[in-house]
Amino acid sequence: xxxxxxxxxxxxxxxxxxxxxxxxxxxxxxxxxxxxxxxxxxxxxxxxxxxxxxxxxxxxxxxxxxxxxxxxxxxxxxxxxxxxxxxxxxxxxxxxxxxxxxxxxxxxxxxxxxxxxxxxxxxxxxxxxxxxxxxxxxxxxxxxxxxxxxxxxxxxxxxxxxxxxxxxxxxxxxxxxxxxxxxxxxxxxxxxxxxxxxxxxxxxxxxxxxxxxxxxxxxxxxxxxxxxxxxxxxxxxxxxxxxxxxxxxxxxxxxxxxxxxxxxxx
Length: 266
What we know:
Elements: E1 3-4, H1 5-12, H2 16-24, E2 32-33, E3 39-41, H3 43-57, H4 62-70, H5 72-110, H6 116-123, H7 130-139, H8 144-155, H9 158-180, H10 188-204, H11 210-222, H12 224-227, H13 240-255, H14 260-265
Antiparallel strand pairs: 1-3, 2-3
Helix pairs in contact: 4-5, 9-10, 10-13, 11-13
């Protein structure tokens, strides 16, 4: 049975131009011609076309496909093995690129330029929820403080992170102790802990006036993902996030000096 170039194009999902190109390259010349001189392909031609498309899908250039066709029994296995090695190397390269891209995404969203192993080593149970980080980046996109915090976080070395996380661990233990011992959220001890946290943010990330600190604390109380950045889930107690939020607000009120409007603008 014979098929026109248009029929073969439709069967194989290739263009007529591609079939003409294969003909010129000596890979697939139609077995016959119609009385009007048009190309006609046989069933054997279609089988050969399938082979060409198979090798093309594997990434073989046309000249290598031609070499395979010169002696399929001798050449096909050798070329396929070589191509398998090339594909394996390419897969490994793309996997590395994917990992680099994923790390870049995490750095952009969280500002932490550490490998997953280093993150575990430094942060322990403290986890970064990328959905929260993305929402926060969008929410504070126009905030100079957010941009400064992200830039400074991305510039921190592993040792910087070790130091700041060590400070955070000590502070967290004191916060849990104050809460467990029933200290009032607006008492001196709780407010001093709130002030320590505010200064910690200023020291390591961005200037954190009381107005900004209140907004951060409001996020802690409203979103468990935000609070998990300072107290891991395993150490949390019911009401602890609200307790810290109240302590921060009480500390901000304690520090108020009549210039709250300017403070809020920052």
